[in-house]
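Q: What does the predicted 3D structure of PfkB domain protein look like?
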Amino acid sequence: MPAVITIGESMVLMIAEQSGPLEFVTSFTRKVAGAESNVAIGLSRLGHQAGWISSIGDDPFGTYIRKNIRGEGVDTELITVSPNYRTGMMLKEQSDIGDPKIYYYRENSAASHMNPSALIDSYFDNAKILHITGIFPMLSPECQETAFAAIALAKEKGLLISFDPNIRKQLWRGEESRRILLEIAQQADIILPGIQEAELLVGSLEWKDISTAFHSKGIRFVIMKDGAVGAYYSMKMADDEIIDGYEKGFEVKRVVDTVGAGDGFAVGVLSGILEGLPLNESVRRGNAIGSLAVMVKGDSDGYPTRKELDEYLSR
């Protein structure tokens, strides 16, 4: 049974093999993309048991996604196959400067029609962490209901709730989205926002204001990504003592694509928490995996094995 459970949509990712606008591209490389499955894959490569709950279409892309993620050692027992809706897809340009443009084709996808019936009570029995992102509940009212049902079940079983807001402008609906994400945050034990996401949620760019706001909601671990520079962290102890600090990022000589870096960061932090590492070491591990992720095109292609991570950290 998995130690970490994730839930969300994964799509087939088609990456352009030539630079420039997609209208002129003639060939693509196929990959799998999905924030939650990225985390499951990264944890599995480090030797942790991870499970991914989702729905795919009864189509070749869905089959490809399931085989790919299962091939990474992730448990896919709770993937359902929809006979009525297709697997989502996204297209990514290749850019020589800055992040590439991404085009999503996920409306009315199989995953967007998930409902709480996808959850099985016993699947949560031996898990330690439920990892949720802000993407999944934004897909549809059914997904929102499923996300909150998963959180309730995880809390009943004594799991830690990890929450990465992972805000996507294509799914952002202003105050409604902010309300939903804050409601999820109030249920979380661990929150992993980027600095701009934290500003959207609590209205400040000041780290002390951000950590205070999240701790006041009952969140124990507040870890904020500060881009390539590093990450702030803060932990509220049982006696209300606050332990906080900052871990610098790792130097990257050439950034290829930043997509997947935040999920890689979550992999590092969650793996450290699972292994009982001090929070600063867990955050340093997150910075390391995030830096490895930006050196390659695929979302999770840069995530290391345990041996690779140890060698990278030792250098």
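A (community wiki): The structure tokens above were generated from the sequence. The chain has a mean pLDDT of 94. The first strand starts at residue 4 and ends at 7.
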